[in-house]
Specification:
single chain; mainly alpha; BLOC-1-related complex subunit 7; about 80 residues; rod-shaped
């Protein structure tokens, strides 16, 4: 009877160790996926900021060209 309980206790310990390892692996996987998602969002924000700056520069260039054309037509 004692050996049976000891064997059962050993089995429970093994299952607990396995569950803990699987849980740690799952947390590591979720951490990696979350890190990748955060990086993708940061990349998207950086792209948006660069695109916004380019559009702003283009708008300023067009405004300057418009003003130059208007001043030339007044001459």
């Amino acid at each position: 009877m004692f050996e049976s309980a000891k064997s059962m206790n050993n089995l429970i310990d093994q299952l607990a160790d396995l569950w803990q390892k699987q849980l740690i692996q799952k947390f590591d996987q979720m951490h990696t996926e979350t890190t990748n998602m955060i990086q993708a969002v940061q990349d998207g924000v950086e792209y948006y900021q660069k695109a916004t700056k380019k559009l702003s520069n283009l708008k300023n260039d067009l405004t300057n060209q418009k003003e130059n054309i208007q001043s030339m037509t007044k001459l």
